[in-house]
Amino acid sequence: MRAYELMVIFNPTVDERTVAPSMEKLLTLVTQNGGTVENVDVWGKRRLAYEIQKQSEGIYVLVHMNTTPDVALEINRQLTLNESVMRTKLLRNEA
User: Fold this and answer.
1) What is the mean pLDDT of the chain?
2) Which of 3, 4, 36, 85 suits a disulfide with 93, CB 3.0-4.6 Å?
3) Percentage of the chain surpassing pLDDT 90?
């Protein structure tokens, strides 16, 4: 198991109340494969540094999890296929 940090930026047209449940549903993949989700922090709507897909705002979500590399890459893949997700960034924590 490795520690990962996942940042997701959702389209601002998405209802903020649906973001956390949809992330929890996606992160069940981690717990099913023996990993743990340490924290899911929904930052809410923030202004972007530059426009992405002609949007100047996005809904930020930060996730800390311990899982295998295969599961982390699969979650990232599923998020990139989701049309309401504008950007993802998956980082492996060294500590």
Assistant:
1) 93
2) 3
3) 93
